[in-house]
Each structure stands twice: as C-alpha cells, then as structure tokens.
Write a structure and sequence with these properties.
Order of helices and strands: HHHHHHHH
Oligomer: single chain
Shape: globular
Number of helices: 8
Largest sheet: none
Distance between the termini: 69 Å
Number of strands: 0
C-alpha cells in the first residue's frame, strides 16, 4: 500500500483510540444522579430526546431557520456517508481486493456522488453564513470554522473521487486530516451527542416532562 493510505489508517487509529478513551470515561461516570422523586418514564423520554425533540418544530428557534436546519441535516448525512465510503475503500486497499465496479452500477456511484456533492454545497453555505452574519460570528470560535471547512473540503474531495472512481493521495491525506481533528475539535460531538441527548432525556423523563403530554380541553 502507498504511504498516504498508511497515513490515513494511522490517523483513523488515532481517532478511534481517543474517541474510545472518551467513551470509556463517559461510561464510567454512569447515569445521572437525581435526588428528586421520579414521576415519569425515562426510556420514553430518551427516545423522544433523540427523535421527537430533534424536530425543528420542537426547538426554540430552528423552525424560524428551516433552510439552515435542513442544510445542517444534509451536511451531517453527507459526512457519515463519506466516512462509510472511506471504510469500504480502505478495506479494499488493506485486504487487496478489487471492488467489482461492474456490479456496482453507475447509478449507485452517481447517487453517492450527488449526495456528497449536495452535502458539500450545504457545508460551504453554512461556512459562508457563519462568516457573513454578525450574530453567528460572535458565537463562533476558531474550532467552528476549522471543523466546518475541513468537513466541507472532505466532501468535495470525496465527490470528485467517487465521480472519477480514483482515490489518490489528496483523498487519503484529506481523510487523515479529518480523523486527526475529529477527536480534538468539535467534531467529537459525533460521540458526545448521544450521551448529551441521553442525559437530557433522563432529566426531563425523570420529572415526567418528556414526552410532552397532549393538551386536553
């Protein structure tokens, strides 16, 4: 294998080890400790926290910014898909097996490339909006810009690589940079997100606030 493939694999190992360390640390902390009297269903509240409460209509202001909210969803889907593509390509390089492109129809490749391209455009639009809008600049830090731009570049590179079906040095180095930054910057919320939603669901579920009860007249 080429040096840039080994570089990306080393970066992936670094990422997995660090995220694994964070994961174990979070597990050791255990569930939240609440001294108040339990009055609700925690399991239902956690499910609502991860599904229903993520709806823009259930958030404080997301429903006022539906285009941005939608762009963020597409951006995240594209990132997960791009990482899945990397895993498949990397495995083919490690075990020296050839992906039977003949059985993978052009339509599948076009669909994958289209999704990552649309996601990259969404990422770029979010990056520009963060720069242009004063209120977003005031809320943003260097990590926000780096993480957004790095994921956007990765999506553009993945789109090109899929379209040409050629995964070269630029592709693997870009993925390596992403994997190195992931456990260091804000992208590590890929792990913390689920623990945060669990804690939020636990808090409101314990008190019987979530899932919200339908109002009766």
């Amino acid at each position: 294998m080429s040096w840039y493939i080994w570089t990306s694999l080393a970066a992936l190992l670094f990422c997995v080890v660090l995220l694994g360390k964070y994961f174990v640390r979070l597990l050791k902390k255990g569930p939240p400790k609440d001294l108040s009297q339990k009055s609700g269903n925690i399991a239902q509240a956690v499910c609502y926290s991860c599904i229903g409460a993520m709806s823009p209509m259930q958030k404080e202001s997301a429903y006022l910014h539906l285009p941005t909210y939608s762009a963020g969803i597409i951006f995240h889907i594209g990132n997960f898909l791009a990482i899945l593509v990397y895993v498949i390509i990397a495995l083919s390089a490690i075990f020296s097996f050839r992906i039977p492109i003949e059985s993978v129809t052009n339509l599948v490749i076009i669909i994958l490339a289209a999704i990552t391209f649309v996601a990259s455009v969404c990422g770029l639009s979010l990056f520009i909006k963060r720069i242009v809008k004063k209120e977003l600049r005031e809320l943003s830090c260097t990590d926000d810009y780096i993480s957004n731009l790095l994921c956007t570049v990765m999506l553009f590179v993945t789109t090109y690589s899929l379209w040409m079906f050629q995964f070269g040095a630029v592709y693997y180095i870009t993925m390596a940079l992403l994997f190195v930054w992931m456990p260091i910057g804000k992208i590590k919320h890929v792990l913390y997100f689920f623990f945060a939603r669990y804690h939020l669901g636990f808090f409101y579920g314990w008190r019987g606030t979530w899932p919200p009860k339908k109002a009766t007249v």
